[in-house]
Amino acid sequence: MQSPYSSSFLTMKPYPLLPFFFLLLSLSSLSFSSSSSSSSSFPINIWPKPTNISWPIPHSSPLCPSFTIHCSQTSHPHLSRAISRYTDLLLADHHQPLLPPSLPSSPHPISSLSISISNPSAPLHHAVDESYTLSIPLSGPAFLFASTPWGAIRGLESFSQLTWSADSQILVAAGIYISDRPLFPHRGLLLDTARNFFTVEDIMRTVRAMSYNKMNVLHWHITDSQSFPILLPSVPDLAIKGSYGPEMRYSPEDVRRIVDYAMSYGVRVMPEIDVPGHSGSWAEAYPEIVTCANQFWRPPNKPALAAEPATGQLNPLNPKTYRIVNNVFRDSANLFPEPFFHAGADEVNSPCWESDPSIAAFISAGGTLNQLLQTFITKTHPFLTSHLNRTAVYWEDIILGPAVKISPSAIPKETTILQTWNNGPNNTKILTSMGYRVIVSSWDFYYLDCGHGGWVGNDSEYDSLTPGGNGGSWCAPFKTWQRVYDYDITEGLTEEERRMVIGGEVAMWSEQVDGVVADGRIWPRTAAMAEALWSGNRGEDGQKRYGDATDRLNEWRHRMVGRGIAAEPIQPLWCARNPGMCNLVQ
After folding, report:
1. Which residue of 16, 326, 340, 521 lies most exposed, with the fewest beta carbons within 10 A?
2. Calpha distance 498→142 (Å, rounded)
């Protein structure tokens, strides 16, 4: 995969260079210098850091009170909404930086932003072109060029972050040119709404924050053993009986609203229906297709029936299982236009299946649990990929599971993507070397729930007063933003294997999270991954740039809070106002 640091605006796609010519004219009397993804900060910064910035002598210009955004593709529904949204934001946002820039200011205002798009019909699918170029002269109009509407939305976000309020006026960085594109096409956040419920507004607020950080995939983990909150037309009882209640369900209208809203922010919504494990909630409507449902998860003197409460897995031997699963998949695909469909397949529990009489008889006759899982995948994968025309996404367990797994030969690589979560770079290498496309979500770097302490009750571990330990969290310690930022998701891979990594996702599992606390648990740590996957975590010198990132992330968190995202602080405010003074090494 080509590094963004080796590219420049001269090697970008051939966008029209007229605005850049204007920019050069406006800077012709200045001594030219440039920065391309360097480790140094500018007086005002963009998060995630663009791949290429040229701002030879930083200036500011006032934003005209009648500032407008023009685009010839006004008929594009999602782009037109984005333009309206950013126009309102730019004229109403009174962001005051923690360290206000002191820049020479042009007396002439920036009057407008003109957008030109070469491929306005490009759909919001995986690997769509999100590149853009942005030029803001010292006066007059600014220009934004993009191949697609989705690249234009990324450029609009960059423009918005170059503005700030000072002396009762809105200023914007001037004399600046940016050419930008993401390093990885898949930059996602997994949001689990099955353990604890998130309202539609909670989800939409999360989508907004994702777009602010140029992330493009909401991995919606909708169902699990605890609840089945999505109301599906052909199997309504799954939600009516399996959700937490009428006020904790997503109607088809809710889902369509979320999907459409996300598209206007350039965010795809990938649904996950986790099967055949993690399916205890299905038993409320269809107990006959679920094994070990509603049992205590750790029976005395016996193996655990689940990785956590609650229990229940689909029975691959019951023909009715496939009728129900196909209905769920079909209805879900009708609600989610996204070509990727996540079908789970993680943490299949052997004792849960073995406790079922029909499966016990199957094993006694010489069958294996691996054969059971393969039967399930063989019957459901073609329905997803051929009948519903989706790319199937599974957790790595499907072929790397510690207890139950299937042969890699049973999973077509052309229609399948695997998502890693164990063993850091090791499992990523195993899967890419097999030829699978991979999404990286290693728990020891990207699980945001880790280190928050245990949540199961009646835990005798707390009887001890011995200091230390993991606080009951299986994946402790807490993943700091630096831990997230510093992870290189292609570490140790060959060039061929690197090309198989399509990106990564942080995961917000919700055992101890709901919409009340989600913002602080997700942000700004997720912003750290957003930059690492957009422009990398290293400067031109090849060194990690987390020192520079600390100051920039302090400021970016401040701006996010001003936009209604309750991101947690990463340092005392004193540190942000005294850059470098809180470093471990001077």
Report:
1. 16
2. 37
The set of residues, in sequence order, having a beta carbon less than 8 Å from that of 313 and lying 6+ positions away, is: 276, 277, 278, 279, 280, 290, 291, 292, 348, 349, 352, 353
State the number of CA atoms in the 13 A half-sphere of 244 facing the CB: 15
Which residue type, as a one-letter code, is found at position 52?
Answer: N
Tokens of 524: 């700004």
pLDDT tens per residue, range 500-540: 999 999 999 999 999 999 999 999 999 999 999 999 999 88
User: DSSP assignment, residue 91?
Assistant: H
The residues that are catalytic are 347
- Among 2-11, 274-283, 333-342, 571-580, where is mean pLDDT lowest? 2-11
Q: What is the pTM of this model?
A: 0.94
Cα–Cα nearest to 94, from 159, 170, 172, 174: 170
Among 118, 135, 117, 114, CA closest to 178:
135
Six token digits for residue 518: 């989600």
Whole-angstrom distance, CA of residue 515 vs CA of residue 243: 17
Cβ atoms of 451 and 475 closer than 8 Å? yes
For residues 289 and 279, give the distance between their C-alpha atoms in angstroms, rounded to a whole number. 10
d(CA 268, CA 24): 37
